[in-house]
Amino acid sequence: MSTLFGDKLAIVNLGLASFADAAHTQGADVIHPEWQPPAAGERDTGLALASLFQHPKVEAANQQAYTAYLASQPAWVGMDRALAAIPGMGARMILHSGPPIAWGEMCGPVQGAIIGAILFEGWADSPAAARTLAQSGEIAFEPCQHHHTVGPMGGIISPSMPVFVVCDSEHGHLTFSNMNEGLGKVLRFGAYSDDVLERLAWMRDELAPVLGLAIASVGGIELKPLMAQALHMGDEVHNRNAAATGLLLKKLVPAILRLDIDAELKARAIEFVSANDHFFLNLSMAACKAMLVAAEGIPGSSMVTAMGRNGVEFGIRLSGTGDTWFTAPAPVVHGLFFSGYSADDAAPDLGDSVITETAGVGGFAMAASPAIVRFVGGAASDALAHSLAMREITLGQNPAFTLPALDFAGTAAGIDARKVVDTGIMPVINTGIAHKEAGVGQVGAGITHAPAECFHQALRALAATIAD
Amino acid sequence: MSTLFGDKLAIVNLGLASFADAAHTQGADVIHPEWQPPAAGERDTGLALASLFQHPKVEAANQQAYTAYLASQPAWVGMDRALAAIPGMGARMILHSGPPIAWGEMCGPVQGAIIGAILFEGWADSPAAARTLAQSGEIAFEPCQHHHTVGPMGGIISPSMPVFVVCDSEHGHLTFSNMNEGLGKVLRFGAYSDDVLERLAWMRDELAPVLGLAIASVGGIELKPLMAQALHMGDEVHNRNAAATGLLLKKLVPAILRLDIDAELKARAIEFVSANDHFFLNLSMAACKAMLVAAEGIPGSSMVTAMGRNGVEFGIRLSGTGDTWFTAPAPVVHGLFFSGYSADDAAPDLGDSVITETAGVGGFAMAASPAIVRFVGGAASDALAHSLAMREITLGQNPAFTLPALDFAGTAAGIDARKVVDTGIMPVINTGIAHKEAGVGQVGAGITHAPAECFHQALRALAATIAD
User: Fold this and answer.
1) ipTM of this predicted complex?
2) φ, ψ dihedrals at A396, nearest 5°
3) What is the pTM of this model?
């Protein structure tokens, strides 16, 4: 004791910084690490975390899930109509993004897109009649992700819409996404004017068949190598797909050119894809969904296999907890707004495109895409920092997706809900921001994080499935 | 004095590090900055540097030259045959890369490419006869850059070869480059086998006319915006042109599709461009040449307006010293060699492609292209360091070419020979490495630096033009 009081103290302070300040003013050397209690100090979640920490069943299950994710080999193999292609799709069903939600609870852009889909299907002949039908309960609304399907923003897919068909050749399952319409007034932001519906009809009647013939003629296009190459060309394949779309075009164009169809059909298809730098996004999403479907359903696994937002709630699923969604209010997105818009105009976080982050690209791969900070805000160093931070909450680094700016390290992938709850580091998401009202369109883009509460719920549910 | 001997010494040591070591062992605090005498300690060059340092005429001339460089707006406006398009091109003339050189002095790849060009023109019917003709003195050999023309590697351009025509709409001058043949056995590395000559004939007879029609139909393609976009997609538009070629294709393909020509011609042209990620290089070079021609001929200016290598000598020109080349032996390139090759196989630094670095891209813009270190060696941090170091020897940062990883700072541009001589920092070049024997092709890629001696000579010559 005499030594203790005689020597100069070297203090490590955890928690309240004011304790460190007090010691510091007394002349002591104080180290104050950035620290917060695991599970944000919540007792039940903390106990669940403790029970799952280094649990051999969880470790083995995660290894199995992560290995399956890594092994996935998604390829774009064709085009089809949603009703014919998507398992469980109904003739009077409309799919939407995120976790389940009833018509009356949906946000403006999603309701608008549903009105558009009803008009597109010819189930009603006016927006008012479409709204009445949507309210009537005669249309089934189900999440895309209940059907191995993903859709950006509203994610609205109705039976006659064309969908990308992606096949994981390693595991044999199929995943689906709708086709990207471009920017401006488009269905996924809730627009349903005549020009929107006419474009959708052209995509169904002309574009999708041309692309289907082209894909058939080349026997499919492997998506992971294309995404990997795009990561070396400034894309993160969520909000930046300029390189990926260009690489896709390089494969599509020669195939389209050799089709035995009218030259004008070829030119219009190529020009449409060429004019939309986001065209690849929906294929990126379907590929990511395929990788994550591969990791689903491993009892005990704390790996996150789905995230999605319906504009009201953010939901996640774990491999070890099956089809259950764990939800919390959808967060706001902090970012850059287009001229004339502000945070007051923004809908909460929306869409299934966060499936890209779930698979280790998007915000997780921002180190590949310093240019995206001009779109979502921040500095180039932030892009690196996001990719590095995600290593703290993931099962590994995907060697298929390397990041040049981090000396070709693989992107952090396989979100471990335990690590999220333990560290308090939430999965980073970069995303477009929709106007809160139907049909206005995109008003900005930015960065947000998955809500902690989803992971707390999920971890408690997972712990309940594990016998000590 | 008593204070000096009584106090502890704080020493700044310049030059020999051993002096600092000695003081350090005596317990003194020593700062040893990285420093070397200006002009590498050479008296005459040092005096020239001193006479030009902050000289109002040089400052004003550099401002004028740099402003003209920045203002240049090069566009690809058409295709033509070399003899018809290039001013001063002769019917029995062959252009080569770098500064002037006689047949007998040329390196293997350049001699091989000239033999190929003679066969291609039909001036001889065997390689042996072509060599005899080349030795005879009946063919004029002149540098590409004497004719506003640039060619990668050997840079061999003969009268009937097709060339890109680039027009600087701001200043009205034209620049030219040949077309990129792809990798492997190609003329620019000195190959002249039948397949090489057949490809060149196809490019002349079919590809160039198709591209010429396409360009005419769109009224030209602006090159600076395309290069700027590629810099945001992982290219540095010297050794990496994957994104730029893709962006070019997006403009070319719709134009080609609408041409009233046979579908197979369209398909072959698009497939050739699509299959060669280096296709854009020659357009990048012609665009860079256009920007630098704009800065030529300003009396007193120490801005470097040309660099080039003929495989034996490296040469530079300054704006203020007109057409004079200042040369030194071409350096070796340090880099990564393809499987089966080593530094023993390498030709010295070769080609006019260093015009890209002269214009502030290529090695100067490596911060845009971390993925290129897999091709030229080094780590991602080296790519950033090269771009930062070049700020020390340039007149400014080009706002048209921004580097996302450096928070969108403009690339360092406008090499000031005074700053090169003062700092001893030499312009960095990333470049392909040719086999020293004709026709083997590319054996690697790497990093080198322009030789200091060129800048010393140039600065002494510039000083002689300036009246104090």
Assistant:
1) 0.87
2) -175, -170
3) 0.91
